[in-house]
From TrEMBL:
Pfam families: DUF247. This is Uncharacterized protein. Keywords: Membrane, Transmembrane, Transmembrane helix. The chain crosses the membrane at residues 443-463. InterPro entries: DUF247_pln (IPR004158).
């Protein structure tokens, strides 16, 4: 690996100078400048082998939080272990930023990456204001440099000067702020923008910004955002609201980020997805029943009309309804959940609510027919029940703990199941005629029972 470069773009010498051009992501010119006008385009997260990291590759990751959650030389064993996926089996994640690593490969078309518009110049009209904003940004970074460095492992910044390190943070932060603000204003306003005009690129960057290895400390992004002039950021818009809008996250009315600031975007996503589970007790679950078994016992699966977050699962004994918020599975679902689960296991021991949710799904979806049942009830949006079952099984294979914040739901479901199974004839159909051999065995046993009964009756009559 060569020298670590800044991600996504360069602003020339200054992020808001008169002649500053914002260049598109994922490329460098191989020279001293970060990107340059004639930069060659390289795909993110690639190697000469052509895949994301290559066989037995190692992903170097940065973020460890201000509490040094990962620690020096700490290793996170990769959750990205599904065969044929974007990481090879047995990959390990080390701490060093993907945002800041050199990029290799040539699968992107250079013509698709053009200069951005002079966003900052257009928004901050006076040169004095631009220079003042730049000085404020730099002063803020210098004041919090030690705190920022504590959010990364020592190996990432050990050999970097203060100016070099803060340059990297500044470039990343300004790119994120500009991206969020442009997104809020609408793509129609930036029809020539090299990112906003390309749907695939917008999606790729949104996905990358949530990955655990690509994070900047949330506190510094929020601090820099607050330093922006009102003409740039608008009035009465908090940074967390801006971030949620960009990531298409629902922000509950009673959600208060002030109570506990997210560590980064990955942590923000987790906190919103698991909002109603926070503070729930975690206990061992002992009884498990698949979705089809529960349906045979009379349980109805429904998508709740109102819910605060994805993990807002509920079982209503009175109506025998299992309410599960809708989960739409796409090409990014596995990667997102693995990032969230990896972060939980490392940072939130005992509060792995995303992991508990995946375990709940894995219990309900024991077979493809269970996945099909949830798909038919619009709880899972996908077109292949086998793929859904395999995905959930793969995710759950990384979590072996059977303690869950859903223990009360499991208890209620099991209690209902035990008391109601005999009332539902469908149970007997599944239990005794679930497949060919079960059916043959059941019929044979019934015939044997009838013959035995007839023989007994004949014997009794013969005695008379």
């Amino acid at each position: 690996m060569g020298e670590i470069r800044s991600p996504y773009f360069s602003l020339g010498q200054y992020y808001s100078g008169d002649n500053s051009d914002i260049h598109s992501p994922y490329f460098s010119d191989g020279g001293e400048d970060f990107h340059g006008d004639n930069a060659e385009i390289h795909p993110p997260y690639s190697s000469a082998a052509g895949d994301y990291h290559g066989d037995n590759a190692e992903i170097h990751q940065t973020y460890s939080s201000a509490g040094n959650y990962f620690g020096d030389n700490a290793e996170i064993h990769s959750p990205y272990s599904s065969a044929g996926d974007y990481l090879a089996d047995n990959t390990e994640i080390h701490s060093e930023a993907l945002f800041h690593q050199d990029i290799y490969g040539n699968s992107y078309n250079a013509q698709q990456f053009v200069k951005h518009g002079k966003f900052w110049k257009d928004r901050v009209s006076k040169e004095r204001e631009r220079e003042g904003a730049e000085d404020e940004f730099w002063d803020a970074l210098e004041k919090d440099e030690n705190k920022i460095r504590q959010c990364y492992e020592a190996g990432f910044h050990r050999n970097k000067s203060s100016e070099r390190f803060l340059d990297l943070i500044l470039y990343d932060a300004v790119f994120i702020l500009e991206l969020f603000l442009k997104y809020r204003e609408g793509r129609e306003k930036y029809t020539k923008d090299s990112i906003l005009k390309e749907g695939w690129l917008r999606l790729a960057i949104r996905r990358d910004l949530i990955l655990l290895e690509n994070q900047l400390p949330f506190f510094i992004l929020e601090k820099l955002y607050e330093l922006l002039p009102v003409t740039v950021k608008g009035e009465n818009t908090e940074f967390v609201t801006l971030a949620c809008s960009y990531f298409k996250l629902h922000l509950p009315s009673n959600f208060s980020p002030a109570a506990k600031m997210p560590l980064h975007f990955t942590d923000l996503v987790r906190s919103l997805l698991s909002f109603t589970r926070n503070g729930k007790s975690v206990e061992l679950i002992k009884s498990f029943h698949s979705a089809t078994k529960l349906r045979q016992a009379g349980v109805k699966f429904k998508v709740p009309r109102e819910h605060n977050c994805l993990l807002d699962v509920d079982f209503r004994r009175l109506g025998t309804e299992f309410h599960i918020p809708q989960l739409e599975i796409d090409g990014n679902t596995e990667r997102l959940f693995r990032n969230l689960m990896a972060m939980e296991m490392r940072i939130y021991p005992g509060q792995e609510y995303i992991c508990h949710y995946i375990n709940l799904l894995s219990i309900l979806v024991a077979k493809p027919k269970d996945a099909k049942l949830l798909m038919e009830n619009k709880i899972v949006i996908h077109n292949d029940e086998v793929a859904v079952r395999d995905l959930i099984y793969s995710l759950a294979s990384d979590t072996i703990d059977r303690h869950s914040c859903y223990h009360d739901i499991f208890f209620s479901v099991d209690d209902y199941y035990k008391s109601s199974w005999a009332k539902n004839p469908a149970y007997f159909v599944e239990e005794f005629f679930g497949n060919f051999w079960k059916g043959v065995g059941t019929v044979a046993a019934a015939i044997l029972l009838v013959l035995t009964l007839v023989q007994t009756i004949c014997s009794i009559l013969g005695l008379r």
